[in-house]
């Protein structure tokens, strides 16, 4: 899935001269946490709710110049080294970028023009959708040999059980030479399919006991 498929295209923005008080109001009104800053339609920075909170005086002390802080432009506190993405970037690439750079959002640029934004919440929700856990389903985890064709073999057994698969995840097993296949299937009763998998010699992990089901 590419960012253009789910990014927010109606982006709330500020200008370099937008005041801290105005920026706070924009975040609150639109229920967002990240505000790209534009100058002549060019992205020049970004401010987050945390940046704005850090700029405010402590609520424990009242100072004569508190109102001055609220009128300062966001260009004085914005982050000018903005990590961005492209509409054709894949979801997992964006997730990796956000993790590596420890940022909560990625403005999406195309030919230096801001065309969207994705946040950590957007990424997380799409991952939930891709894993199929947003719908009624069950998980079947199988430890298999790390070899060519094994995924097709397991999939064939599931097909024969007439159970529909909503997602598949493959990751390394703790056992050398093995890998784990995690199927999300659209049934709440997995007894038939797990029995068929065991009959074919596959090791099905019991999600409750953390053990492999065997005959």
TrEMBL record:
SUPFAM superfamilies reported for this sequence: ACT-like, CBS-domain pair
Boundaries of every ACT domain copy: 139-215
Chain segments annotated as coiled-coil in the UniProt record: none
Organism: Brevibacillus laterosporus LMG 15441
UniProt-recorded name of the protein: Inosine-5'-monophosphate dehydrogenase
Highest taxon of source: Bacteria
InterPro entries according to UniProt: ACT-like_dom_sf (IPR045865), ACT_dom (IPR002912), CBS_dom (IPR000644), CBS_dom_sf (IPR046342), CBS_domain-containing (IPR051462)
Residues annotated as domain CBS: 7-63, 78-137
GO molecular function, one term: IMP dehydrogenase activity
Keyword Cell wall biogenesis/degradation: no
Keyword Transferase attached: no
Keyword vocabulary terms for this entry: CBS domain, Oxidoreductase, Repeat
EC number: 1.1.1.205
Top-rank EC class of the record's enzyme: oxidoreductase
